[in-house]
Amino acid sequence: MKKTVLATMLAVVAFATNVFATEAEAGVLGLKPSANQSVTQQSGNTANAASTDVQSVQYDTAKYQFPAQQLKAEGKNFNKYDWRLFQRFDTGELMVQSWVDGMNWHIREYADNTAARQGGRVYAFDFREEFLSYFDKEYIMNGMRKSSSDNELFFMRNDSVNLDIPVKMSIGVHVKPENCYPRGTRITVPGAMNHNGSGEPLGIYQELYWENASSGLTTNETVEDYNAKYGHAIEPVKLYYPSVNRPLYVSGWCLDDVAKYMPIIDSVYLDENPENTSHYTYLL
């Protein structure tokens, strides 16, 4: 293992401890969301990495479709994790495919009902009206206002080694902007073999605040706090998704949360060598 790889892994050991927790132990970051998860959340990557090039450029909205397209064409420096640079000039729609293409990630459609209906692993949205009225809606659970959706976009890191279980995050996809409530990101990571021969299982990570909100481990005070901050839609973003003949929306808060973790994950999985995953797990 090269020293540079080892140093990177040691630098993110705090993140790793949470990543490889089982779902039952998910999240040990405390009782409140991290500092950059406020109601008007801007991901640390998005807010802090706005370069001089991005701030000073004169955008040609007639020639280019979205800011990142022009910045790349002109050789400018910009933060590839900043999804706002991939919103169209004309409609504000997010060019989500263009965003993930430049990050060594890809997206995949998913719905439980579609997979079950086909009797196997099928990756596709399900927009049958009888299911949308039941699954894509607002609801109250344990006093907390939330929204649900059977349709999701998986954000998956390109990986030729862990084909079945790559590093993965997901966000809910809605047909109504008012259903775009925030939801703390769940990160799925593949297991690995330790150098001593023992194995680490599939791991699922989520901050403790959101794990508790999902499982109902709350008090009256935390319910009030949750509803005030997160019990409503936050920054609905319309997707540019020409393959679907209807408007689709996601929460900008959730996009920020996914973008927050992408560079951390990329700094751990530096390439597709399984030795990296194995040694990284061994360090824990």
Protein described:
The protein has 284 residues and is of the alpha+beta class. It has one domain (3-283). It has helices at residues 3-11, 13-19, 44-48, 52-56, 67-73, 96-101, 112-118, 129-135, 208-215, 220-230, 252-268, 274-283; strands at residues 105-111, 137-141, 144-148, 151-157, 168-172, 187-189, 192-193, 199-200, 203-205, 236-238, 249-251. β7 and β8 (199-200) form a beta hairpin. The model is unreliable at 1-49 and 278-284 (pLDDT under 50).
How is the topology of this model organized?
Elements: H1 3-11, H2 13-19, H3 44-48, H4 52-56, H5 67-73, H6 96-101, E1 105-111, H7 112-118, H8 129-135, E2 137-141, E3 144-148, E4 151-157, E5 168-172, E6 187-189, E7 192-193, E8 199-200, E9 203-205, H9 208-215, H10 220-230, E10 236-238, E11 249-251, H11 252-268, H12 274-283
Query: Residue-averaged pLDDT, rounded?
Result: 77
Count of β-strands? 11
Q: How many domain regions?
A: 1
Rg (C-alpha, Å):
20 Å
Shape: globular
Strand content: 15-25%
Oligomer class: single chain
Largest beta sheet: strand ordering: 1-4-5-6-9
Largest sheet: 5 strands, antiparallel
Based on helices, strands and strand pairing, what is the structural class? alpha+beta
N→C terminal distance: 16 Å
Assign a percent range to the helix content. Answer: 25-40%
Feature tags:
alpha+beta, 12 helices, disordered C terminus, single chain, 11 strands, 284 residues, five-stranded antiparallel sheet, two-stranded antiparallel ribbon, globular
